[in-house]
Amino acid sequence: MDATEVVHIVQPARDWVNYLSALLVPTIAVFGAFIAWQQWRTNRARLKNELFDRRYEQFCVVRDFIGSIISSGNSTLEEQQKYLVGTRGMRFLFDKAITEYMDKNIWAPAIDLECLESELQGLPIGNERSENVRKQRDIKTKLHGELKALEGRFADYLQLRH
After folding, report:
1. pLDDT per residue over 49-84, tens digit each?
2. Where residue 162 falls among pLDDT bands split at 50, 70, 90?
3. How many domains does the chain have?
4. Spatial distance between the Cα atoms of 135 and 56, rounded to a whole number of angstroms
5. Contact status, residue 79 vs residue 113, Cβ threshold 8 Å
6. Measured between alpha carbons, how far is 133 from 150 in angstroms, rounded to an integer?
7. Is 2 strand, coil or helix?
8. Is 75 exposed, middle or buried (0-12, 13-18, 19+ CB in 10 A)?
């Protein structure tokens, strides 16, 4: 075997090394892109879970507030404070329609009920007292209906679609 034959044997091995080294950079780039995509998916799922947790917490505060009114007939100052603190920032987690709904259909009737209860304390038995009790009953019935419909109203916001 002379020197020219040795050069021909070594030359094909060098070609493979050149091809593999040329493919190394795109392979690393594809692998890096795959890792970045996986991290994006993971972060997106984590964000959805955190958003769900915050929304569900506020849903529970609203549900418990209505439930306490229905069970006791009125809301205490402590329950009102829990509601207000628990639903703070709701406008950032839900759309405008939900926050307006909460103000109009949950908070306002609860305050109306409290005012009617305060007025009832000093009223003598008669038509005025009966009217007050009827208004309280109507508000409690309305709040009971809101409690039943609450899950449906929040359903779109409490879905974990990945």
Report:
1. 888 889 899 999 999 999 999 888 888 888 989 999
2. very low
3. 1
4. 31
5. no
6. 25
7. coil
8. buried
Residues 6+ apart with CB under 8 A from 160: 48, 49, 52
Q: Do 155 and 56 meet the contact criterion of CB atoms below 8 Å apart?
A: no
DSSP state of 105: I
Indicate the DSSP class of residue 123.
P
What are the structure tokens assigned to 162, written together?
Answer: 């990945």
CA distances to 44, 49, 51, 94, 157 from 54, in Å: 16, 9, 5, 10, 11
- Segments forming the whole domain that contains residue 32: 3-158
Between CA 61 and CA 79 the distance in angstroms is: 10
